[in-house]
Amino acid sequence: MSLIEKVINKKETSQTPIWLMRQAGRYLPEFKKIREKNPNFIKLCLNENLVQEITLQPLKRFNIDAAIIFSDILMLPYGIGQHVEFEKNFGPKLGELKDVDLSNMNEDKFVKKLSPVYNSFKTLSGHLQSKNKSLIGFTGAPWTILVYMLNKQSPKKELDSNLRDISENKKIIKVIIKYLKIHIKNQIKNGANIIQIFDSWAGLVENKYVGEMIYEPNAELVEFVKSLNVPVICFPRDTNDYIEFVNEVDPSVISLDYNVDIKNIVKNIKVPTQGNLDPNILLTNKDNIKKHTLNILENFKYHPHIFNLGHGVLPQTDPIMVDYLVNLVKDY
Ligand code: 1CP
């Protein structure tokens, strides 16, 4: 059993494992080199050899406890037939959802389209098992996927008008959940030991719709992952009540953003936690990184905890600072 699985299953607190959201990718020179030669991001996510190489890049550099598959939450809209591309210095650009012919989509077609992703899990899984490290699979949460599918690009800080029709949203979320379950099932079948569900835009939902747009869809997926005997980490970024989220959704682990009051969390949340160093801290200096890291470790000393950031590693991060952070946690 890997160290992360010990924290989750056995509530181990003697050693704190660490991995980082967005640990593979944009801040690593060895990734940028590959990316330059592969301008089509979707194609890159479907290139089994390169996915393996990129997924393992951070493990070659740092003493981290898990690999997260190099892929993207937008492989789901791609899989059901929505046009998805990534434009340099802009981000994702999606086609119209109304152009997607869902009556012509089914489980077999979807799995066939994403089969290179599942093959990558198979190869990586064998490799990581021998090193006793976890292989993390992931998806976006239904609401966050819906945001991209309807908004067709990254959202702004407030909710765009095309996302305000709640009954229409619920219909689309049903379809998203159907294919998310297929996507999760195939990741697990091919070797994912843990699933993380990214609800990166949970913070955009008005309070009165949090039940329908955040809690219920996450709870349905959590129950599904648990039924496959795999732990599930939820990351409802910027949601206004993590304690209520845990009570309603019951994830195996709750991943915290960097705005939460961790003392209150330790007091009121029983499930293992993950997080929550502000990724901007990695852009400062070693003394400051040490101060903030030790503060998090002290607060979670008696609570099962997986060290991570409060959101993804920023592109301008110096890998030397990441190495420094990992060693701090490992030497604690
Ligand atoms: O241009 C490039 O070089 C591509 C940059 C990039 C990378 C490296 C994108 C585009 N996606 C990824 C990989 C990725 N995405 C991973 C695997 C790597 C790892 O974590 O180590 C993961 C887990 C994701 C997840 C993801 N994609 C999320 C959830 C996490 C988060 O950051 O909130 C989201 C929202 C996306 C959408 C996405 N993918 C890429 C971009 C530029 C965006 C938009 C982000 C935004 O709207 O702010």
Structure, described:
By secondary structure, the protein is α/β, with parallel strands linked by helices. The chain has a single domain, classed as Alpha-Beta Barrel (TIM Barrel), CATH 3.20.20.210. The strands form 2 sheets. A 7-stranded parallel beta sheet has the order 1-4-5-6-7-8-9. A two-stranded antiparallel ribbon has the order 2-3. Helix 13 packs parallel to helix 14. The longest helix is centred in the middle third of the chain and has 24 residues. It is globular, with a radius of gyration of 19 Å. The model has no long low-confidence stretch (mean pLDDT 96). The chain binds coproporphyrinogen I.
What are the main properties of this structure?
single chain, 332 residues, alpha/beta, TIM Barrel, seven-stranded parallel β-sheet, 14 helices, 9 strands, binds coproporphyrinogen I
Output the strand order for the largest sheet: 1-4-5-6-7-8-9
The total beta strand count reads: 9
Helix content: 40-55%
Text of the CATH class:
Alpha Beta
- Give the helix tally: 14
Kindly provide the radius of gyration, computed on alpha-carbon positions and rounded to a whole number of angstroms. Answer: 19 Å
Can you tell me the number of structural domains? 1
- Looking at the overall shape, the CATH architecture is Alpha-Beta Barrel
**Shape verdict:** globular
